[in-house]
Specification:
heterodimer, A: mainly beta, four-stranded antiparallel sheet, three-stranded antiparallel sheet, 1 helix, about 5% helix, B: alpha+beta, six-stranded mixed sheet, five-stranded mixed sheet
């Protein structure tokens, strides 16, 4: 699910979010909120990072490594219980999708990235499946 | 104690509930500032003299940090950038002239903020309730009080750790945003599905996606029907219950309410009567592969191409393998 953050440690290794939260629970003060809307945990001193996107988090500069990414230190991890979701029929299957899940659409002779919330009937995925609704 | 409006009363009540006697309220307060050797009135003196209404929340974990809260109870107009700028000036002045105290600012305006407020709030590092980035800017009365409570409780815990970064823009604005933004999804879920989904134990509102995440890959262990509802036990000590039109799920507390009864059981797509034992034998031990909610009927797709449909007073099982007539149960 894309409403769960992708986290890495200082060695750039992927961190299991559930294991991290279990670790945080040993100190109740780390769990800033745990209620009907979700969970927020403080991890500012645990050397946790997230990929910040295409550019440097402050300057917007691209990573010096062509295939590399900038990473950004994470202070709080937020897990949302009600991430925006949409229902779509893609091919023969009706799916519940996170609204910001990305799909690759075949548009004439080019490929477009489209978020689930922006999928429209008639679009065809790169995999050949058609969006019906 | 007198309050200028209902918003102020509710916000102060909540501040008192979370911060105890470290919460205070002052009306028509002339801004006073701390300096090293004297106390003087800030340059907000007029004409007209600058007076503010302020709720202050303090925290035991960090006695020198105070949250200054401004309540804007506008009847039919959203807060403007000027409201945010005013509070930024107040908080900024307090910080500039303080001896030991440090101040963070929060503006609460239930009717919402105009879009121009966001750059001001983030660059001045003020928290705003309700959150600005959300699509929906107006929330029910109770929701903004819940947001405020969540922010205060979280800040109180956050102050047990190094928190200098909260004073650097836009860290505190982001902190408040992260804590308040998810309410939009919660309220939308309640609007879409009412109280159909509830988490067992905590009684929290839940959603279809959360139900799917919980049960995907889990194994059916047993089914019981009583005068109260239908109970299905799953592996990992999980329970699914259909009580009237409400679906309750989560950690199994072992409670099965009411007297055991026999309910209508059917097999195959067009619904031929069958024994509960027959149905149980088919589905027990199968894992959940999909789920669907049709309002008055909930369906679990199971391994072995089975579909288990659950209604308040009826269970149905059928095989989804084609051709249908050659795969009857």
């Amino acid at each position: 699910m894309s409403d769960r953050p992708i986290l890495i440690n200082s060695k750039r290794e992927r961190i299991d979010v559930d294991e991290l939260i279990d670790k945080c629970r040993s100190d109740p003060n780390r769990i800033l909120a745990d209620d009907e809307v979700g969970l927020v945990a403080y991890v500012g001193d645990l050397d946790i990072y997230t990929v910040s996107g295409l550019g440097h988090p402050e300057t917007g500069d691209p990573s010096p490594d062509v295939k590399g990414h900038w990473v950004q230190k994470v202070n709080e991890v937020s897990l949302v219980r009600f991430g925006g979701s949409v229902r779509r029929q893609i091919g023969s299957v009706v799916k519940t999708l996170s609204a910001d899940s990305v799909f690759v659409i075949q548009d004439k002779d080019r490929l477009l990235k489209v978020k689930a919330k922006d999928l429209k009937p008639g679009m065809v995925l790169r995999t050949g499946e058609k969006v019906f609704w | 104690m007198k309050f200028k409006n209902e918003l102020e009363r509710r916000i102060f009540d909540m501040a008192q509930r979370v911060c105890g006697d470290k919460a205070s309220i002052e009306h028509n307060k002339t801004l006073r500032i701390e300096v090293a050797n004297s106390v003087e009135v800030a340059s907000f003196v007029g004409p007209p003299k600058k007076e503010i209404d302020v709720i202050t929340a303090g925290f035991e974990s960090s006695p020198d940090l105070k949250l200054l809260i401004s309540c804007k109870d506008y009847a039919d107009s959203k807060a403007e950038p000027a409201d945010v700028q005013e509070w930024a000036a107040v908080v900024g002045t307090m910080n500039s002239y303080s001896g030991v105290s440090q101040y963070l600012g929060l503006v609460v305006c239930p009717i919402g903020f105009t879009s121009g407020c966001e750059p001001w709030a983030s660059s001045y590092n003020l928290g705003v309730i309700p959150p600005l980035k959300g699509k929906r800017l107006v929330f029910p009365t109770d929701t903004y009080v819940e947001m405020f409570e969540r922010v205060l409780n979280a800040l109180s815990k956050r102050l047990h750790f190094p928190h200098e970064n909260l004073f650097r823009a836009p860290e505190f604005y982001d902190f408040v945003y992260r804590l308040t933004e998810p309410f939009e999804g919660r309220d939308q879920s309640v609007k879409d599905s009412g109280k159909r989904y509830r988490l067992l134990g905590k009684g929290w509102v839940s959603s279809f996606p959360e139900l799917v995440k919980t049960f995907m890959g889990k194994t059916v262990l047993g089914i019981a029907s009583t005068t109260t509802g239908l109970y299905i036990a799953f592996s990992n000590d999980l329970s699914f219950r259909m009580i009237g039109k409400q679906i309750q799920f989560g950690p199994n507390d072992g409670v099965i309410g009411g007297q055991q009864i026999v309910i209508k059981c059917e097999k195959n797509y067009f619904g031929e009567p069958c024994e509960m034992g027959f149905l149980k034998k088919l589905v027990t031990g199968q894992k959940v592969t999909s789920a669907g909610d049709w309002g008055d009927r909930f369906e679990f797709g199971l391994t072995d191409d089975l579909m288990l449909a659950v209604e308040p007073e009826r269970l149905q099982v059928y095989r989804t393998r084609n051709p249908m007539e050659k795969n009857l149960l």
